[in-house]
Amino acid sequence: MHLNELLSPARCLVPLPASTLADAGLLLVEALVGDGAVDDPDRLRERVEDARPEDVLGYGHRGFVLHYRTDAAPALAVAVGVAARPVCREFGEGDEPQCARVVAVVISPRREAARHLQVVSALGQLFQRPAATASLEAAGSAPDLMAASGWAEVALEPQLTVRDIMSERPRSIGADAPLRSAVMDMRRSGVGALPVVDDENRVIGLLSERELLRHLLTHYLPRAGGPRTGGPSGAAGRRTVRDVMTRQVLCVSPHQPLAEVASLMLNKDVERVPVVRDGILVGFLTRGDIVRNLIGS
After folding, report:
1. How many domains in the chain?
2. Most buried residue, 57, 124, 127, 216, by most Cβ within 10 Å?
3. Cα 169-170-174 angle, rounded to 5 deg
């Protein structure tokens, strides 16, 4: 199945008469309402007005995906528009806005969480391909947009894969980095683990709270009656990530079925896994990612 099979002329706005990303999103929502894709329009509008940052995905200057999970929609629906001029997403003061001409809106009920993620992921893949996006931008009408060649470049997977949920471009660290620096990095970024990579970004280990706790038990928290073997100064304070990380790392592929990987994580009692392609780190997946994406809020 390809993305254009989810479209209809009434859900394609060419040109999209909007000057801001927010206006573009509202116009596409109204197109879905007008085409009968929404049971409770007011509820959907409230959901859009209360949108969170994670509801908006930007792909360079090629496109935006605004996606909302709401029971105001009886089934998954997609609307796409192409503005005559780029619409922009504003960030904080001093940051350059992100602008693009193509905007997609995805709505779906909560029970279709897996399908929702597949469609959002497929749109993301589409917008990462300059030639595909160019074919959408060249459309002069709704039928032209539906017939654009770019849609055929991305097919929906028959089932949810790791790529649909993983965090892309994850934080990582080198094996020779000071352990204290790694811990501070984990605290500042709010992550529970860091993949350890070599100079070619190949995964060679994992530093997680589990390894750190084991290290603390050995060197900082001597058991009752036992000798204190270390402390924050001296040799213990000069330890590197290599000294503490585990080298036994379960890595998965972005194309593996999510159900298979989730089962593997449960059976092996693994909280998180690096995602690799040809040995190169391309993502990170945690149990929390799976729960949040499939259940959501």
Report:
1. 2
2. 127
3. 110
Q: What is the pLDDT of residues 75-107, one digit of tens each?
A: 999 999 999 999 998 876 667 889 999 999 999
> What Å distances lie between residue 179 and 128, 183, 194, 216, 245, CA to CA?
36, 6, 12, 12, 10
Residue 219: domain span:
167-295
The C-alpha atoms of residue 190 and residue 282 are separated, in whole angstroms, by 19
* Run of H or E residues at 285: strand 280-286
> CB–CB of 175/182 below 8 Å?
no
Entry pTM: 0.73
* Run of H or E including 184: helix 179-189
Instruction: Classify residue 287 as exposed, middle or buried by CB count within 10 Å of its CB (0-12, 13-18, 19+).
Output: middle
Task: Give the residue among 124, 57, 264, 284 at the shortest CA–CA distance from 191.
Answer: 284
Residue after which a domain boundary falls, among 156, 182, 206 = 156
- Asked if residue 191 and residue 83 are part of one domain, the reply reads no
CA–CA distance, 75 with 276 (Å, rounded to integer): 33
Q: How far apart are the first and last CA of the chain?
A: 28
